[in-house]
Amino acid sequence: MALRKTFFVVCLFVSLLCLTAGYGFAGQWIGAAIAITSGLAWLPARKYPLSWIPHICLITSVGLAVTGQLTGTPPLLMICGSGFALAAWDLILLDGALGTHSAGEQSRRYEIKHIQSLALALGAGLLVAFLGGMLHLQIPFVAMLLFVALVIFGFDRLWGTIKKRGIQ
Predict the structure, then answer these.
(1) Distance between CA atoms of residues 21 and 14, nearest Å
(2) pLDDT score of 103
(3) pLDDT at 113
(4) Contact 64, 37 (CB under 8 A)
């Protein structure tokens, strides 16, 4: 089984587990049934990655997470469920983009780099969401705006340095 297929199955399972458990803990069994049904709808999306089915599945999963959040399900489970659904969607689109070109060494390196960056983004996003739920800081808007501008500037400078030196 290809690396992206394995990660797709893991992401789909975690997303389905988080969404179903969130609705189950809240006692909303209709939502849990819809979450399971939407999880099974990802399988045809895997077979037809270039169609509109992956987009519908992503919208459904994120919509379930938002609805769950509004109806009182555990927020962390809904955030994890939608985050892993987004990762599954990205892996389906990667599969559609690579298509038959996945046999070459260059495609394999691209796939590994893409999965590494996806895992890093997913981990960082979930960490920030988890910390954001636990920490309650009261920072003035202007200070937060300056901080965000500083972070964006720092990432821009880092990216420019990486491109300039050709670090891989």
Answers:
(1) 10
(2) 66
(3) 84
(4) no
Contact 11/57 with Cβ under 8 angstroms?
no
Spatial distance between the Cα atoms of 94 and 142, rounded to a whole number of angstroms = 39
**Assigned token pair, 124:** 């960082």
pLDDT digits (tens, 9 = 90+) for 55-103: 998 999 999 999 998 998 888 899 999 999 999 999 888 888 777 666 6
Closest CA to 1 of 96, 95, 110: 95
For residue 151, how far is the Cα from the chain centroid? 22
Listing DSSP states for the chain in one string gives --HHHHHHHHHHHHHHHHHHHHHHHTT-HHHHHHHHHHHHHHHHHHH-TTSSHHHHHHHHHHHHHHHHHHHT--HHHHHHHHHHHHHHHHHHHHHHHHGGGGGSHHHHHHHHHHHHHHHHHHHHHHHHHHHHHH------HHHHHHHHHHHHHHHHHHHHHHHHHT--
Q: What residue spans define the domains of the chain? A: 3-135, 137-168
pLDDT digits (tens, 9 = 90+) for 135-157: 777 888 898 899 889 988 888 88
